[in-house]
Amino acid sequence: xxxxxxxxALISVYDKGGLEAIIPALKAEKVLVYSTGGTYDxxxxxxxxxVQVEDITSYPSILDGRVKTLxxxxxxGILARREEGHLAQLDKYEIPQLDLVVVDLYPxxxxxxxxxxxxxxxxxxxxxxxxxxxxAAKNFNDVLVIPSKDQYGVLERILTEQKGSTTLDQRKLMxxxxxxxxxxxxxxxxxxxxEESIIETPVFKHSHQNGAALRYGENPHQQAxxxxxxxxxxxxxxxxxxxxxxxVDVDAAVQxxxxxxxxxxxxxxxxxxxxxxxxxxxxxxxxxxxxxxGDNVSAFGGILITNTKVDLATATEINELFYEVLIAPDFxxxxxxxxxKKKKRVLLKIHSYARSQNSYKSLLNGVVQQDTDLKHSQAxxxxxxxxxxxxxAQQADLLFANILAKHLKSNTIVLVxxxxxxxxxxxxxxxxxxxxxxxxxxxxxxxxxxxxxMASDAFFPFPDCVEIAHKAGIAAVIQPGGSIKDxxxxxxxxxxxxxxxxxxxxxxxx
Length: 510
Description:
By secondary structure, the protein is an alpha/beta fold. It has 18 helices and 23 strands. Helix content is 36%, strand content 19%. The relative contact order is 0.07. The model has no long low-confidence stretch (mean pLDDT 92).
């Protein structure tokens, strides 16, 4: 029979908020309620008279509450099929039928976020609750499961609008919700225990409970969903919903600016995940102007990000440009008032530049996982390979350029002068092409490449790039090194008085 009337229920929840709305409906439908511990006390406080689970099991809650519902008289009432053989066994052993199970699990994930105390965390591994959810979901033909506080509203509607009767489709839907909850919960626990990859065999387990549908994917014919919690990263101050492409670009922007969190005011302009303008200056306004100068054409419709509060003077300048998203740690009130007037442009106040230790990409019939490229080369790690060493100013520019090369698509060449991106070539199949593109772009936007420095994301297999750069006036070079023909590039630099340093770290970005 598809329709089932709720006559009895087991309620055992961690978060009791919201139960008050259900209690009158339970009373109105004369549902016999069984309950435990704090949930029992809460229900009594709000006018319900439930039966304590220990009255049917003859066992109290033991082991500091670790064992309350784990008993055949509870699970038998949930798992019994409503057919002659099973019902006879319930009668024989005086086990009550349970038509509804309401559970809200211990907050394991929140506990992990809020403490490093292993004892507290382990005590929030729910045993009885997860077992109740699985049992009720398994027997969805006869039992309705409400697996978390997020579904209390579903139960209220069933009790009030359907007078406590459920359809098979509803019960199956809630069973699916239950296994969504339980699988997510188990994944969180596993990842906590395996945080240091103590299991030798690589394992890929990730779970996000609630996805947000996006308008579309990279193109209008593609559907897309975002799984994550943007509220942990940003407060959205204004603008339209972020699209798939917005999110990809915003992620690239945050990854880049995470390198400059402690730096003086820095601004970056990105387009299609690649930085087309970046600059560090004494003030945020100067940083914005210098970043925009790097490529004021590509900046149209771009993603803007800074590590510094945006003031009115800077906001006024930015407001002249059409952009998609502007990200900053804060905004002066008058700056925010100005920038929020244009309703479609997205304004994000960033809370965290934290980056995951791992990154992932779907490919072929699976997923590839790798360590995120978090390497940030320091001055003391550089190895000068030429007889001429870079000056202090050149070294600062070389490190700046190396950061940018790390965040641009391979093959990439970056030109920097006075902590400003003046030219870049990226995503090229030839590093020589990337070098020509970077120089041409710098000249196109009016920059003098004489005295600039050059960074490459990978080694030079031949001296052609340093030769091209030197002829354009480039004054110093930074690269990972590692080619069997490194000496050819070193010799060219030595012959022409060009300092070149190695980082020893390649930064391919595919």
